[in-house]
Amino acid sequence: MQLEKVTLTYVDEEDRIRLSAQTPEGEVVVLWLTQRLGNRLIPVLRDWLLKQVQGGVNSDVLHQFEQQAAQQANASEQAVVVPPNSHFWLINRVDVSYSSTLMTLIFKGKEEDQTAKMTLVNTAMRQWFDILYRVYQRAQWQCADWPLWMHQLSNEPSVKVVH
Question: Which of 32, 106, 124, 139 could covalently link to 95 via disulfide, CB atoms 3.0 to 4.6 Å apart?
Fold first, then answer.
């Protein structure tokens, strides 16, 4: 199953992140991500993003700039609405494949037919990484593997431009 649009929400009662996902055909599925699995996924996402910018003395500044650009390019979209008859399952494993320009996350559940795939290019991956970071903050989950430039961005006051 290919995922086209995904909304991440922390659900306190479950102590999990809910991925409300929609396929290109309009089918909606709910996937549950635990903190334990999320903490294993974050370094993989981070390391791929680190390769997207040439290293050097100012690499943190460059990553921060790229992350800000991705945040600003993130169009405000409607959240995926979960109908009552939607399928839901716990993510037990995330397989990752990537090239220099895109990353594919394959979410797998307990059953063989519980597989969903999401493919993201650089900017979309940065946006997804940012959303995941913000959901982690709302959940008050700790993970030592978030890059410094993500922490710096979250501590900056937001600036709105008015015309």
Answer: 106
